[in-house]
Specification:
Helix content is 35%, strand content 23%. The chain is α+β, with helices and mostly antiparallel strands and 502 residues long. A seven-stranded mixed sheet has the order 17-18-16-15-21-22-23. The protein has a six-stranded mixed sheet with strand order 3-2-1-5-14-13, sandwiched between helices. A hairpin with a 4-residue loop joins strand 10 and strand 11 (198-199). Helix 9 crosses helix 14 (438-450), helix 10 packs antiparallel against helix 12 and helix 11 crosses helix 12 (373-399). The protein binds adenosine-5'-diphosphate (ADP) and SN-glycerol-3-phosphate (G3P). Adenosine-5'-diphosphate is lined by residues 12-15, 266-267, 310-311, 313-314, 326-327, 329-330, 410-412, 414-415.
Length: 502
Amino acid sequence: MSSEYIMAIDEGTTSTRAIIFDQKGTKIADAQREFTQHFPEPGWVEHDANEIWNAVQSTIASVFIESGIKPTQIKGIGITNQRETTVIWDKKTGLPIYNAIVWQSRQTSDIAAKLEKDGYGKMIHEKTGLLIDPYFSATKIRWILDHVDGAQERAEKGDLLFGTIDTWLLWKLSGGAAHVTDYSNASRTMLFNIHELKWDDDILKALNIPKAMLPEARPNSEVYATTKGYHFYGSEVPIAGMIGDQQAALFGQMAFEPGMVKNTYGTGAFIVMNTGEKPQLSDNNLLTTIGYGINGKVYYALEGSIFVAGSAIQWLRDAMHLVDSAPESEEAALASNDDDEVYVVPAFTGLGAPYWDADARGAVFGLTRGTTRDDFIKATLQSLAYQSRDVLETMKRDTGIAIPTLKVDGGAANNRYLMQFQADILQTPVQRASDLETTALGAAFLAGLAVGYWDNLDDIKKQYATGATFDPEMDPKRADYLYEGWKDAVSATRKFKHKVRN
Ligand SMILES: Nc1ncnc2c1ncn2[C@@H]1O[C@H](COP(=O)(O)OP(=O)(O)O)[C@@H](O)[C@H]1O
Ligand SMILES: O=P(O)(O)OC[C@H](O)CO
């Protein structure tokens, strides 16, 4: 057994994990911890950044204790994270000045709407590859600076620091030595010029965000700092990879060639296509983003972001009490006798790609006196597959590239009913990764490449192993018929703007 390892810290929207991999890319040990979701007002989602940091420390301690592996055996650490989520903290005390505003949160819709109204849409799209939306960090920074007394002034003086979760964890792990982000996370702030690879002065000015609070943006595979303090029991382990979780999954799925696509079904679902070394702007409301920067090159990607995927299953569990656990949804869907005519549109925090409708809210269609719990659960699972077809159809239209196979991963990809329905509704084979921790593996690969644990991409390509493949079994006409029903449901959902109209 190898005695040297790489650790990945995968800080997701609902839980954080510490995973140790060996040189074959095999998971040797892992520890996971959930943390609190705060919903202070309808449509708002916040996290306590200190609770996240505590959860990260506790998973690191657990993974060492449970595996018996020592910190000195860890050659490098890769961080991967829920993107866009925004933390602002005091440089001296290290304390956040407000909760982290989570990517899903809609509390900054007014700021986004004003930017749009003031005519910044085209400029922001051209420079950042993004569409103006409360999803990205920029409006969240503005909101915190507006709502915490004296924050603007302190930020201007350089007393406050901004970071996405990668930056926050790096700063904490390095004992405050490094205030750095990576290109993939920077490209989700709506403040980063993805062509010039630098913070954009025009956008900073439009939002009155002081440059002094921004981290330095760097490529994805290099030593940013070493661990300091008790987290690694005094060992100075290099933190050598950082990457947003969706780009990490692209890398972990080894989608290195242009045209390769993956879908990760986590809290949200994110479909990402590698488009190579030139950024390609979308005409159809997809996002252009930085995939990863390595060996002096930057690879771009097109992305369709679906805001609610696995979190709809959590909603079935925690709010509707229809299941006791997420996996139970599979049995329920298989037990449903409904003719697939109930539709759940889980627009709990608006709709992402390709609609970008921040004001939409969830709806259910097609209920009859005979509709059962099982039917309702099945329709909720199906909504993940329908939303993915929305994005993949858009991606095909945008790029002209046919997608022969969809590579999938993420927690909800465990659900065999969902994977089969996805293959059916797309009429495309769905290929599941052999280990669904692809996101963590992507971050581990980037860290391992930086410290010479792996030599090059060919070295890591050898580790690739696919899991199950789901081939379409549904008649194509039926798939189209059901999908038409979904489109009707989305269109009706978007007409219902009761709260907004009042
Ligand atoms: N068997 C399952 N069927 C459906 N959904 C599932 C299943 N297992 C996990 N999930 C969903 O997947 C999500 C967790 O996936 P994960 O990749 O860990 O997400 P994240 O990185 O966003 O925290 C949860 O929202 C959960 O409801
Ligand atoms: O926590 P996940 O895996 O759903 O990913 C969140 C995304 O990074 C948000 O853009």
